[in-house]
Amino acid sequence: MSSSPATGGAYGVQVLIAGRQKHWREDVAGQIRRAGFSATVCDCGVDALTVLVLGLPVDVLVADVSLEGALCCSQLAVEARALRPGLRIVLASDMAEAGAEAMEHVPDALIISQDARAESIARTVREALASRN
């Protein structure tokens, strides 16, 4: 029995969410869970990178472009891609220029507006899963 691209193997699809604002993280995690995926939530880039370094299963990273601190969003995306070349990355941004800057570092990442309507982030995660090699 083989798994389809949208099923992340024995663990199901695992989505790692990294964002500064608690309300945004909870909203995104709710969308992800309603879509039938599992969500791991972090409030900073360092914690998200730790999840990846520890080798926990992650199929898609959804990161808030406004992440700041020791590991900003662009750095998180680059480090995540270095650790896991096949990892799909979705960047959530409320500023076009911030999203464009992050895209320079990880050109195949998908961008979505942070204030997008309900369920649009889950839809973008599905698109990311469908586009993986």
Automatic annotation (TrEMBL):
GO terms for biological process: phosphorelay signal transduction system. The keyword Nucleus does not apply. The modification 4-aspartylphosphate is found at D64. GO terms for molecular function: kinase activity. The keyword tRNA-binding does not apply. Residues 14-129 form the Response regulatory domain. Gene3D superfamilies: 3.40.50.2300. This is Histidine kinase. PROSITE patterns: RESPONSE_REGULATORY. Keywords: Kinase, Phosphoprotein, Transferase.
